[in-house]
Amino acid sequence: MGMLVPTALAARLLSLFQQQLGSLWSGLAILFCWLRIALGWLDPGKEQPQVRGELEETQETQEDGNSTQPTTPVSVNYHFTRQCNYKCGFCFHTAKTSFVLPLEEAKRGLLLLKQAGLEKINFSGGEPFLQDRGEYLGKLVRFCKEELALPSVSIVSNGSLIRERWFKDYGEYLDILAISCDSFDEQVNALIGRGQGKKNHVENLQKLRRWCRDYKVAFKINSVINRFNVDEDMNEHIKALSPVRWKVFQCLLIEGENSGEDALREAERFLISNEEFETFLDRHKEVSCLVPESNQKMKDSYLILDEYMRFLNCTGGRKDPSKSILDVGVEEAIKFSGFDEKMFLKRGGKYVWSKADLKLDW
């Protein structure tokens, strides 16, 4: 028995020595590989999978580190109101509240965005001309152009409440007016929810086009392609109106807005397939100002602020709000926006958006 203890101890010590030697050898082997790279000993024609993989992993980690830089809010869509005088069945931003920020608070938020890198602000709704008969909107437009000196100020409207007086008062501060027009058939507009009663949507569109030219505002058209207009041929109408851009969207479901139990709209009956959307685009491929946006391109490529100035994250198929930029600042709130900057650039989100640079024949 007396000899068993030293023997066992010796075996244990030998095992530990072998483990340490193995670790030392592994470390030396890795060090040797790096020396070969540094001194140019590796044959450039030969693949070195293990070392190359380690280098690529390091490079990817560095690139990921760079991606944590704060997102710059170059272009922001500010939906300052959810109220609307229409009832479009596929609406992406429904009247879930009637809240509108006090004017000075809205200006403070816009200043914060400007300080964070804002270049283009787009006012939308709801219907933005509904608040104070367009005066609230006009004051924001003037503030953004005159005091913030933003390169581009734009509006998306259904056009039904715009009067020429507004252009006289605020037209000089507006770069682009986008009018939503989904059909040039009044019966289809009524089915969608854009019916104006005795008013003719197409005639009103032509009047707005004329005012934009008279008051030097770039004219744009937005269309949502859906079950009721997917077979329509709009070529002649669009060419006659000659907008600077014709933005064509594929009807999109957003849970809590136009889909789901807590939604105010049921847009499922308006949906079209990707193939049907492509067929519509192909029918209008000769329209040079056409800018198509499929569901994939649209969903995460917009920076959207709601009526409380919270960024809305659509990555989960809903509009999940961040904290308000008025409370936590732009840099903190934008982290939760879900914004896909690569898709924003891919869909042409950055374009010539100042009327001073458009060189239009007024």
Textual characterization of the structure:
This protein is α/β, with parallel strands linked by helices and 362 residues long. The chain has helices at 4-38, 49-66, 103-115, 135-147, 164-170, 186-192, 201-214, 235-241, 274-283, 295-298, 325-328, 330-333, 341-346, 355-358, and strands at residues 75-79, 120-124, 152-157, 176-180, 218-225, 245-250, 290-293, 304-305, 310-313, 320-324. Strands 7-6-5-4-3-2-1-8 form an eight-stranded parallel β-sheet. Strand 3 (152-157), helix 5 and strand 4 form a beta-alpha-beta unit. Helix 3 packs parallel to helix 4 (135-147).
Question: What's the quick description here?
Answer:
The protein has helices at 4-38, 49-66, 103-115, 135-147, 164-170, 186-192, 201-214, 235-241, 274-283, 295-298, 325-328, 330-333, 341-346, 355-358; strands at 75-79, 120-124, 152-157, 176-180, 218-225, 245-250, 290-293, 304-305, 310-313, 320-324. It is α/β, with parallel strands linked by helices. Its cofactor is [4Fe-4S] cluster.
